[in-house]
Amino acid sequence: MNYHSHSNPKIKARFGDALLASLASDGGLWMPDSLPHFSPAQTAKMGAMSFADCAAVLAREFVDERYLTEDLRAICRDAYNFDVPMVTLGGELLDAATPEDHDEFILELFHGPTLAFKDFAARFMGRAASHLMKSSGETRTILVATSGDTGGAIGDAFLDQDGIKVFILFPKGGVSQVQEQQLCTMGNAKSNVKAISIDGTFDDCQQMVKDAFGDKDLTTKHNLMSANSINVGRVIPQSFYYFWTSLQAKAAYPSRPIVYSIPSGNLGNLTGGLIAKQMGAPIDRFVIGNNVNDPFVDYLGSGEYKPRPSVPTLSNAMDIGRPNNFPRILALHNGDYDAVKSVCWGASFTDAETERHIRRVHTETGYIMCPHTAVGHLAMEAFTADIDEPITKITVGTAHPAKFADSVETILHQNIPLPAPLAKAMRKTKRMHVMKPNLEALADYLAVHA
User: Among the options 118, 210, 250, 403, which is catalytic?
Assistant: First the structure.
């Protein structure tokens, strides 16, 4: 598989080179030259595989000759050593062998080591990058901007990896208490992972990373590599779980259309789903749930894309006013607004609506949602309100609610037990550097610590 810059198709790269370069030389996002398409017979075989083995088959289509089939199988089995369950709000597991008559599921993508969906992309990316650097002896400095969960997943995936240093930029006061504790307690004082609190918004963090990559001297000096969803190595693996879980849902309910609702910020998760659909995954529609930072929902309604400064909300990981992956979504649909709108429907919700929904779902079912999952579930309810035909509704659960315990406990007036990894992080002493949102400050810090 070869890749090209979304803004200049003449700029080309292999997967490994695109992965390590992060952005194309013109600043464009890497896009695959083409997408594979699997026949129903092929997807039937893939649906019978484990998730990790299906992911390895899919990965084979996207990487280059430096990855052998056995390498990919080992990478995926190591990366995906946790469950990918679809459950009802009552806690029942979707089982293709003996499906009950359910039409609504939560795809819980938070059973990895950092309890967030970002683990899927980060763990594949970390192992894919390490595979290349072990053979080449190269080193890399990773810059990653996070609105909450990305930094934790990347830090965990690259912790103690030889030849790699990781610098995590997060907005001061813009992540949950649990998320900040997780970001700032990885490894020890001599660890290769360092947290930087930026006195600004997530958009400021993201712009600092973009500016760093736009500085050729800085990029060359430190061998910079991005682990944000601007990196194609983050986006491609997000197609794997849409592909495999849609096959499980179709096997259980073969006559029903399948609709996924995705709580969305930077649009990398949606991009992965759209790639899966174009590869032949049996997905009929995507519902996009935004908080009040909703430029993509506005675009779906008007055809005009108007990025704007982000504002803080309860669902902080989606506080993004300039989503990085919007150009990729356009590229996947040849810039055709009608084509995008034919597969995507969106709605946005306030914090007050999100809080009420978390309380209602818990009261009616006992299920506890994180604020982001709640936004996605609200969007699914809005989309299906006037649909009478039977469909399989799958809301993407992006993070364990305990990662947002400070807000969810206040909403529900009850304690949420912390899973073991979070409880351990909460007992540690935080280490972080506070920085103003400008490239000069970042360059000075890298000069000392990279």
Answer: 118
